[in-house]
Structure formats: C-alpha cells, structure tokens
Amino acid sequence: MTTSAIVLAAGKGTRMKSELPKVLHQVCEKPMILHIIDKLDAIGVQKVIAVVGHKAEIVKEVVGSRAKFAEQTEQKGTGHAVMQAAPFLNEDGHTLIITGDTPLIQEMTLTSLIENHIKANNDGTVLITKFDNPIGYGRIIRNSLDEVVGIVEEKDANEEEKVIKEVNTGIFCFKNKALIEGIPLLDNNNVQSEYYLTDMVSIFNRQDKKFGSYLLADSEQVMGVNDREQLAQAEYIMKKYNSVSVSEEEIKKFS
After folding, report:
1. What pLDDT digit, counting tens, does each position of 122-142 carry?
2. Dihedral angle at the C-alpha atoms of 154, 100, 132, 230, nearest 10 degrees?
3. Which of 67, 117, 144, 214 gives 50 a disulfide partner, CB atoms 3.0 to 4.6 angstroms apart?
4. Beta strands of the chain (E only): which ranges?
5. Structure confidence by residue, pLDDT tens digits, 55-114
6. Which pLDDT belongs to residue 235?
C-alpha cells in the first residue's frame, strides 16, 4: 500500500522574530523540517511533498531531493496548502499530513496512526490529544454516538465548545481518493477567511464517508514550535528523549 506524506512548511513564523523560514529553525542542531522528513523516511513513506511558501528557495535548498515541492504563494490556511499538494497524489494509497513545526513527534506515533486508520477503514483520521488547558487548539466535536463530526478552530468556537479538552494535533491520515475528491469542496467561510483542512470532517460526514480519530496520550510529542521559548523547550524535550545531558539552566527553566 502506497503511503505519501504532505509536510506543511509554508509559514513565515513571525513570532520567531527571524527572517529564517519557521521550519528551518534548529532543534538539536537540525532544522525542524528535517526531523520530520527523517521520521517519515524511517516509517517507510514512499513520497514526501513539502508545501513551501515563505522564502521557498531556502527551504528547497535545505530539503533537496528528499521531497517534491508544492508552492503556496499566498498563505490561505491549511486546507489551501493541501490543495497545492493534491495534484502530486495518486488515487490509490493513503497520505499522512503533518505540520513542519512538530519535531518531537515519534515514529511509533505516526506508524500507529496510519495502522489504526487503515484497520478501521477510515476515509480520514485525525491524531488527537487532550489538554487541561486547550487554548489555541481546535476542539474535537462528537455526536451522541461518540463519532467525530467536526473540528472547530479556537477563534470560531463558542463558549460551550471552548471547554472541550480533546483537541486536534494538526496531524491527519487520509485515503488519497477521499482527500482528492473532498479537498476542492473546502470554503473559507470563517472568521479568518481561510481554507481549513479541519473542515474535511464535516465534508466527509455530508458525503457519508468515515472519519475517525486516534488518541495520543503523550501530548508533549505534538507541541508546535511557534516562538523562541518553545524552540528552546523542544530542544530540552528532545535531549530527554535521546538521553542527552541537559544543563542545570534548562532543567530549572522547563522542569
């Protein structure tokens, strides 16, 4: 079974306060996007498509021949990014979608997500986790049968939805055929006027396609890196994962 991956790597990363594209900031002396691609290679992904935008040429130079590139010249949301990559996909097989700023994700987690998705015969599956304080994350909406029927972004959530602790990690697996058929149906009718990949859940529900979830207990793995402090925290966590000694200063700051 062919497995592809789309890595979302077009963002500027304004909060990094740097001209360097966000995904090229280093964790343990390696750009974040290369951590992701290393893990995709390790789990046997046959085709990697990197969606690039801000300073695309620099990202392409760093990644080199390890991925094909789709250009997102205007950043209009995650769904819009995947629209640019969809023409690279064949109708057979499955595609993993992952953000380029989650360098802590573990190979076993990605493998388990794909295996769970295939075993359940889902058209789409979202990797979810739980936070006691889920501010900033999209909330998972379920029906009375406990099925995932929607993902609502923080800025679009009402007060009842904001108390939901089950959240979207931004990592998905799709049947290629379902993704290719569904992605053109996205619209940007939301507060941000962006095309949200998360709206694929409601599209699939309308099409009677099967959308599922896979719960990751270790939420630390899916920490997004958006600023310098989170970059330093990711480095500290990765050193712990790899049993590398950490400084007393790091221990005091992040323990």
Report:
1. 999 999 999 999 998 999 999
2. -110
3. 67
4. 3-9, 26-27, 30-31, 47-52, 68-71, 94-99, 124-130, 139-142, 148-152, 166-175, 211-215
5. 999 999 999 999 999 999 999 999 999 999 999 999 999 999 999 999 999 999 999 999
6. 95
Instruction: List C-alpha distances in Å: 94 to 138, 171, 250.
Output: 23, 13, 40
Q: Following DSSP, what letter does each residue of 1-44 receive, concatenated?
A: --EEEEEEE----GGG-SSS-GGGSEETTEEHHHHHHHHHHHTT
Q: Which helix (H) or strand (E) holds 80?
A: helix 78-85
Marked catalytic residue, from 15, 142, 206, 228: 15
**pLDDT value at position 192?**
87
Secondary element (H or E) of residue 176: helix 176-182
Residue type, 178: A
3-state secondary structure of 172: strand
Active site residue 228: no
> Is-contact 190 196, C-beta < 8 A?
yes
The count of other CB atoms within 10 Å of the CB of residue 130 is: 14
- Model confidence, pTM: 0.93
Coil, strand or helix at 8: strand
